[in-house]
Amino acid sequence: MIERNKAEFDKSNITYWRDKGYTGKGVNIVILDDNGATYPKDNIIEPLIHLDRSIYKVGHKGQVCSVIREVLPEANIYAFNWFTDYKDEINKWIIEHADIIDVINCSFSTTSSGYNSLMELKDLNIPFTVAVGNEARPYGNLTSSLEFAFGIGMWGQAQDRKSVRSNYGLHLDFMAFTGIYYVSETSGREVQFYGTSCSAPYAAAIIGMYAEWFRKQHNRPMTRQECFEFLLKSLDDKDEIGRDDNSGYGLVRLPDEIPTIKKEEIKMEFKDIGNHWAKQEIEFITDKGIMNGYPDGTFQPDKALTRAEYATMKAKELGFVKKK
C-alpha cells in the first residue's frame, strides 16, 4: 500500500480490512475501459487481447486497473477495451462468466450504441459501478444513466467535500474518494489519479473487498441488491439524510468491524439443486455442516463421492472434526 493513500484508506476502513487479511483473494473484477495498455506489474488478465489491435501505451485503462490493484493486491482483474467493434464478444464473455464476477466498473461516458450494448448486461444481477463524469453539471454522463448501475461521484478527502468538477444530480448514487496514488512502471514514480474515473474503481474495489468476505460466508458473489444494501449500511452520509443530489446516498466505505454471522443465519443456496429430488435432504445435511458445496456455488448432487469426501463427511457426522 502506498503511504500517500493512507488517509483515504483509513477513512474507508480499507487499512483495517487489509490488516484482517482481506486482500481480494478469489475476487473477480471486470474493467471496461479505453484502449490504453495496463502495467505488467499489475498482473491484469485480458481475455480478448488477441482481438485488440488498438492498444498503444499505458493510459486510462491502466490507471483504472492500478487503483483497483492498489486496494486489492490479490484480486483477479479482467480488463477489456470497450471502444472496439467487438462489444458482442465482450458481452458474451461476461455473460458466460457471470456466475463468478463480483463487480463491473466503467469509468467512461459511452455513445448511444455503446449504451445499448451495456444494456444487454442489465439482467445479470452483478454490481456495476460507473463514473458520473467531471463536467460540474447537475446530471451525469450517458453511462451513469444506466438504470442498473451505481453512479459514483468524486469526493475530496482533504477538504471533506464533493470535488467541484464532479457531476451530481439525478444519476448520482454514491461518492468515493479521488486522487488515489499508484506507481507508474514507466517512471517508477508515484502518480496521482483524479476524477470520477478514479472514484468509480475505488468504489468497485471497496465492493470487491466486501465481496471477499461475502464469498466466505455464502460461497457465491453478491447480487446487485445485496451490494446496494451493504453500501447503505456502511456508508458515511454526508448531507441530507438518505439520498440527495449533492452526494447521493453518501461516501462509500467498509464497515468499522468485520461482520459476524450467526451460524443459524447462514443458509446455503446452491444453484444446481432447484428441482432435484434430494433438495430437502441436501439442505438439511449442509445446514448441519456435514457436507459443503463447491466454490462456484454448486453442490453437484449427481457427482460420484470420492473416498476422501466420504471420510470427511463421516468424521464430521461423528464429531471427530470441527464442522464448518
Summarize the structure.
The chain has helices at 6-11, 14-19, 60-71, 87-96, 112-119, 196-218, 224-234, 279-287, 307-317; strands spanning 28-33, 76-81, 103-106, 128-131, 150-156, 161-162, 174-177, 180-183, 190-193. It is of the alpha/beta class.
The profile of the biggest β sheet is: 7 strands, mixed
Rounded average pLDDT: 91
Structural class: alpha/beta
> What is the CATH third-level topology name of the largest domain?
Rossmann fold
The unreliable regions are none
- How many β-strands, per DSSP? 9
- The CATH homologous superfamily of the largest domain is called Peptidase S8/S53 domain
Query: Count of helical segments?
Result: 9
Q: Architecture of the largest domain, CATH level 2?
A: 3-Layer(aba) Sandwich
Q: State the distance separating the first and last CA atoms.
A: 32 Å
In terms of quaternary structure, the protein is: single chain
Helix content: 25-40%
What is the level 1 CATH name of the largest domain?
Alpha Beta
Radius of gyration: 21 Å
